[in-house]
Amino acid sequence: MVALELKHLHAFYGKAHILQGVDLALEPGAVVGVIGRNGAGKTTLLRAVMGLAPRVEGELELFGASLRSLPTDARARAGLALMSQDMRVFPELTVEENCRTAALTVRDPMPLGEVLGMIPELKEHWRRPAGRLSGGQQQLVAIARNLTVRCKVLMLDEPTEGLMPSIVTRIGEIVRALAARSVAVLLVEQNVELTLAVCTRLHILEKGRFVAQGTPKQIVSNGLLERYLGVSGAGAH
Amino acid sequence: MAFDQILFELVNGVVWGLILSVIALGLCLIYGLMGIINLAHGSLYMVGAMCAAYLINRAGLDFWLVLPLAALCVGLLTLALNTAIFERVLSRDPAIGLLATAGVFLTLDNMVLAIAGGDPQSVLPPVFEVVEFAGVYYPVYRLVAAGLALLVLVAVALFLRFTKYGLWMRAVPQARDLAAVTGVPIRRVNAVTAAIAGLTVGLAGALATPISGAHFQMGLSVIAACFIVVVIGGMGNLVGAVVVAVAFGLIRGLYSTLLSPTWSEVAALSTLLCVVYFKPNGIFGRR
Amino acid sequence: MMRRNWTSALIDALQTASLVLLLIAPLLASDYWRFFFFQMVVMVYLAIGFDLSYSYARILSFMHALFFAIGAYLAVPLVSAAAWSLPAVLVGSVVAAGLAGLLVAAVLVRMENHNPTIATVIISSIALLAANAMSGVTGGEDGLLIDARTIGFMGFQVGIGPTVALYYLAVLPLVAIMLGRLALQRTETWMLVRAVAQNEDRARQLGFDARLWRLLMFAASAAIAGMGGAFYALMMRHVSTSSLEIGLSINAILYAVIGGLGTVFGPLIGVLLIYPITEVISLYFVYVPILVGVVLIIVSLFFARGVIGTLRGLGAGAAPTPAFGADEAAAAQGG
Half-sphere exposure of residue C49, counting CA atoms within 13 Å on the CB side? Predict the structure, then answer.
């Protein structure tokens, strides 16, 4: 069964028509990448799915159930998760409290011990206010939160921006681990290298529409990367 | 002025400061959680006091039973306000919330006037004892009221620290969108916030009746102090509000050694207004 | 386009009609109605004061009744038969209220978000407390009376109280203010200035001092409220601390919101619509403020754009208009 399905999704900010009919199907265990130039609508796409965009039209289904009438928090409890740069952590809560805030929203959260097993780097910071951690560590806290609620669909909005290469690799590992656990991952990224390495499928978003899609190999060999983003695919495997 | 008189006024100041901090707490919670400036907060305090006065004087109930009843009454009223108004105002221009709560203030104050009349009502304190210390004879009830106010503050602090909703109530003001995205049930958290704000401000109103009586305009007398304390403490900053409230009480107490009650209120408020000039967004800043 | 035309025409008709009504009422009506209209005129001053403060200084003020009262109280000692008396009352009230506004705004513009509104509530409360405590000076709730029956103006003696002469003396500046605002709105400089004033960051980038602008606009709004207060005192020949009550400010807010915030004629239309209704109701029902409160709640939740804003919204079709500032939005759309 398809984990997340978008049909003819449109999104508007005031008079601006940002998303102009997006169709997407995301299966459990898939890592689907969305790439595109700045302003193409990538962030709007994720926000619209999460219920944070002011005006949205079209179909949005999570395991067949429509999300359209649900507010953001209900969508989250249904298994949809968003990791976004401007909302990584609750700054004044400790790392432990950050995770507990999430754990309390679901009936069967992942035990905190198991979460720490997947992200052991957080052990030493467990009781520190999350706002004091570095950007990369905060990102790990955000991932820990989403692990805690056993999210079924994880959307990541440029998770590696401004982070060190070691953290970028780490995030890639965790994304693959999640996919192995049948989580469906939707990854919006500027870092082409990571995207090509981790994704099973890529969509290229331009001016609010998907203009191309395929496996990373296909996208690179057809020269689509250069065409739409102006970058070469050197480094894809 | 003699030392014992000064001490009397200072203790009065601390008592009032603690009651004020309970009132300010609710206002702060509503702002911190929902971003709403509740101009009707003084009216809720007044309703708590009028409820208490009615239940004690007309229904003849025992004071200690009336305290939680009055609190409950205002708690329910605030929940109703939350559903009718706060929820509708959440995602809109803040001016709308200001106007709507101003409307609530007018409506509540004048409804109480219509129902209960304009005469101030007095309520006898449940304990008449007077205690002596350092040459001062001080009414025990006021100390009890202060103690209860302190207890309420501690109870709220414990609630915020150790319960599920308390954690969520701490999380939401720090990152509203993130809270929603994390799955925190925002509507329910808002309702709990409104309930706690109502319970505390209603209790404060009831506690104050043996000291200041009950009158349909007593909300007005408290709203300036309440607001100024919250602004200086830093909007949404609970600890800040409590600290500044007690400080206000002390300052007012100090002025009371020199001026009449009305003028000491004016002086204390004006003093804090000067602080607002230098620190327009609070001493401790917003959370 | 058809829809836009009929609503624009309706708005123009409404505005013209309200203006005409204002100007001819005292000639047609009895003493009672003249008094009635005079009270409305005075409330329009107060409502315009509030509207200017909200729309141009971006301060939602609950204290404009204070500026109104300053103008009113200042009038009392200045009324005499001397030739300079009326100008002194008017200039004095405008200057005093304007200065008070400047002083208050100096604090308010430094505050973020809607803290200024809270500050206006606080200041209004302090002022009422102090005024009642100083009943020796202010007369407290009983207030002060103006015994004189006439006031000197150049060579003439103008009858005070709700006289025809005084009515026109009050209405003319009001109409001038409204027409002036109308003319200013159409100029490009004004639109640029207002657009910039809405966004302090952008203003700073363009080298424009938005804070100074807001300060001056708030002072002007206070001055206008003060002038209204002066006319109120002259008409009633009586001032009391009830003019300092926050309920008066809230009434002005209601008129401005119902008429349409940010519009030139909004305050006038709001007063003309609501004031008579509340006066009539008060004949049968003592607790009119309950209704005012309920109406304010309903209006702010459901009709925040007011009469003019809603009409412009209808005319513009599906395009969303801002909640406040309907005139400017219409002007910007070329409407």
Answer: 36
In chain C, residues with a C-beta closer than 8 Å to the C-beta of B226 are none
Residues of C in contact with B224 (CB under 8 A): 121-122, 125-126, 129
C158 part of a folded domain: yes
> Cβ C287–B111 below 8 Å, yes or no?
yes
Mean of pLDDT values over A48-61: 92
**C294: nearest CB among B107, B262, B276:** B107
End-to-end CA distance of chain C: 10
Give the range among A106-115, A156-165, C166-175, C325-334 with minimum mean pLDDT: C325-334
Mean pLDDT value across chain C: 85
Q: What is the pLDDT of residue B55?
A: 95
State the total domains in chain C: 1
Mutate to test the interface with B, among A62, A70, A85, A101 (most CBs of B within 10 A): A101
What is the ipTM score, two decimals? 0.92
Contact B144, B208 (CB under 8 A): no
pLDDT digit string, tens, across residues A34-46: 988 887 889 999 9
Closest by CA to C36, choosing from C226, C236, C229, C174, is C236
Measure in Å the smallest separation between the Cα of B84 and chain A Cα atoms.
19
- Cross-chain residue pair A87–B184, CB shorter than 8 Å: no
- The per-residue pLDDT for B144 is 96
Give the pLDDT of residue C12.
83
Q: Among B167, B170, B181, whose Cβ lies nearest the Cβ of A72?
A: B181
Q: What is the dihedral of CA B117, B120, B122, B123, to 10 degrees?
A: 50
- Residue B67 in domain: yes
- Alpha helices (runs of H) in chain A, residue ranges in sequence order: 42-50, 72-77, 95-103, 112-118, 135-148, 165-180, 192-198, 216-221, 224-229
Name the domain count of chain B: 1
Angle between helices C2-28 and C31-56 (to 10 degrees): 140
Contacts of B90 (CB under 8 A, 6+ apart): B34, B35, B36, B190
Residue C189 in domain: yes
Residue of B178, B238, B284, B287 best to disrupt the A interface, most CBs of A under 10 A? B178
- Note the pTM of the prediction, 2 decimals: 0.90
Q: Which chain B residue has its CA at the smallest distance from C248's CA?
A: B106
B 146-205 → C contacts, CB under 8 A: none
Is C64 contained in some domain? yes
What's the start-to-end Cα distance of chain B, in Å?
41
Q: Which residue of C has its CA nearest to B111?
A: C290
In a domain, B247, yes or no: yes
B193 domain residue, yes or no: yes
Residue B77 lies in a domain: yes
Interchain CB distance below 8 Å, A73 and B287:
no
Domain of residue B201 covers 3-278
Q: How far is it, in rounded angstroms, from Cα C11 to Cα B101? A: 30
In chain A, what is the straight-line distance between the N-terminal and C-terminal CA atoms, in Å? 29
- State the CATH number of the domain containing residue B79: 1.10.3470
